């Protein structure tokens, strides 16, 4: 039987990067003591009980039927209000469409903005799903390497040089996954300006934005001209410990939001009501919940980075924000994939190789700071033993 060419575009190195994580997760679920540092999720924490209670109450009240395709009106109002408070961008509920997670929101943006013959520019290292997500439309991905010595700040010169008459969109993810780079205001402003001047869409993945102190985060949506070109995608996954609830959104110009509605009509037909009710409770308590999560993540990331920095033969690349620490293992003469496989098989620690985060991810490994501090220290001790065995 024959398959579409899409099946080739959604496969490849980026998918293979998850091999070690899935193996580690399977062993953990089977009852083994695995140090799972391969995914951006606080494995030892739970969603706030008030959010859970709202969902349970909502289910019992019968909120498990069809809902508005674009998301509940009140939820979209609250999302728009929070976005405006954070960025200063003047938006309302008609700019907002709710999706099954931020990943689904990014996918919707690609479907409504890109097609065969278009080019999309993405700084790398980038999140592993980006190649499949952006090229499944038939568009061509042009990746722009960012330098470790520049703390992986977005390479504005490289972005500008890559723009052609085929460029339809640029993608920014700040704080970046996997590098933890927090893009500075001047670089963001320069990219927004060129997008406005050349009518290029700017798709912003802001999933980790709430993990940054508000005074340190610069949103592309806050820049002059953003109303015309910026699509901001976010969710409650990291900011409220709701990874499995699968609730995200996109803030976009109203005409694009209409297209999102039409796509949702034939893609998901709306989200379940009890999850949206839980999301409203999450937003109501954001100022109480999110700062605590931010503090915990920042503390654990520092613990992890300091412990890893003591291991000879590998280099820790400083991370400014987010859930991850990047390791440079190129001095060990082993691929990231083989390093992570061996570490899991011999020492029960799951990291993720960055081979699938773009060509510049080769020789880099991502470690998640999402376990308890004591276990992070223990995992680092095992990584040290493994590195010593390689030497």
Description:
The strands form three sheets. This protein has a seven-stranded mixed β-sheet, with helices on both faces. A four-stranded antiparallel β-sheet has the order 9-10-13-12, covered by helices on one side. Helix 13 packs parallel to helix 15 (373-390). It starts with 5 loop residues before the first helix and ends with a helix. The longest helix is centred in the last third of the chain and has 23 residues, at 286-308. The protein is α/β, with parallel strands linked by helices and 391 residues long. Helices cover 43% and strands 15% of the residues. The protein is built from 15 helices and 13 strands.
Rg measurement, Å: 21 Å
Broad shape: globular
Give the number of helices: 15
**Total number of strands:** 13
- The percentage of residues in β strands lies in 5-15%
Mean pLDDT: 94
Give the CATH H-level superfamily of the largest domain. Type I PLP-dependent aspartate aminotransferase-like (Major domain)
Summarize this structure as a short list of keywords or feature phrases:
single chain, 391 residues, alpha/beta, Aspartate Aminotransferase, domain 1, Aspartate Aminotransferase, domain 2, 7-stranded mixed beta sheet, 13 strands
């Amino acid at each position: 039987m024959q398959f579409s060419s899409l099946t080739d575009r959604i496969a490849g190195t980026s998918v293979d990067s998850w091999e070690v994580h899935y193996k580690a997760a399977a062993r953990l679920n089977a009852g083994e003591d695995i140090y799972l540092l391969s995914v951006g999720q606080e494995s030892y924490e739970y969603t706030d009980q008030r959010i859970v209670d709202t969902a349970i109450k909502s289910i019992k009240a019968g909120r498990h039927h069809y809902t508005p395709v674009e998301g509940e009106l009140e939820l979209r109002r609250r999302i728009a209000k929070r976005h405006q408070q954070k960025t200063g961008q003047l938006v309302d509920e008609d700019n907002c469409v709710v999706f099954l997670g931020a990943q689904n929101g990014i996918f919707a943006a690609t479907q409504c903005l890109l097609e065969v013959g278009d080019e999309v520019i993405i700084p790398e290292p980038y999140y592993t799903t980006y190649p499949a997500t952006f090229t499944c439309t038939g568009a061509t991905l042009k990746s722009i390497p960012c330098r470790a010595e520049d703390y992986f700040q977005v390479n504005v010169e490289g972005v500008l040089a890559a723009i052609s008459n085929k460029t339809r969109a640029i993608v920014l993810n700040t704080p970046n996954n996997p590098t933890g780079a927090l893009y500075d205001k001047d670089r963001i402003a320069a990219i927004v300006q060129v997008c406005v001047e050349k009518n290029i869409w700017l798709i912003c993945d802001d999933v980790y934005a709430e993990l940054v102190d508000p005074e340190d985060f610069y949103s592309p949506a806050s820049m002059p001209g953003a109303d015309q070109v910026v699509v901001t995608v976010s969710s409650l996954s990291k900011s409220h410990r709701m990874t499995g609830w699968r609730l995200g959104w996109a803030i976009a110009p109203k005409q694009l939001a209409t297209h999102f509605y039409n796509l949702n009509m034939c893609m998901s037909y709306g989200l379940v009501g009890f999850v949206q009710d839980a999301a409203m409770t999450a937003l109501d308590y954001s100022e109480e919940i999110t700062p605590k999560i931010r503090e915990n993540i920042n503390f654990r990331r520092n613990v992890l980075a300091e412990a890893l920095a003591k291991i000879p033969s590998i280099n820790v690349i400083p991370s400014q924000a987010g859930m991850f620490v990047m390791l440079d293992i190129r001095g060990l003469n082993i691929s990231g994939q083989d390093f992570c496989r061996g570490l899991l098989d011999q020492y029960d620690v799951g990291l993720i190789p960055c081979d699938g985060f773009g060509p510049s991810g080769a020789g880099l490994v991502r470690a998640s700071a999402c376990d308890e501090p004591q276990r992070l220290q223990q995992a680092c001790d095992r990584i040290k033993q493994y590195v010593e065995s390689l030497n």
